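Thread: "does anyone have the structure for this chain?"

Original post by V.I.:
We have the sequence but no experimental structure in hand. Need at least a predicted one for the grant figures.
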Amino acid sequence: MAGTPQPYAASELGWYDIDALPSLDMPPLDYPLADALRRFFGSAAI
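Reply from O.Q.:
Generated one for you, C-alpha cells below.
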C-alpha cells in the first residue's frame, strides 16, 4: 500500500475502524466512503 490507493483497502482495515482511522498512515483513498470519512475527520486527521 505504499503510496498507491488500493480498492480493497477497506476490507483489509475491517471496513473502517473509525477509532483507528485517524492514526493510520494511509495514502489518499480513491472511493466515495473514504472521501466522506476524510471530510468528516478533516484534512488534519488524514
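V.I.: this helps a lot. The two ends are 15 Å apart (CA to CA).
O.Q.: and DSSP finds two helices and no strands in the chain.
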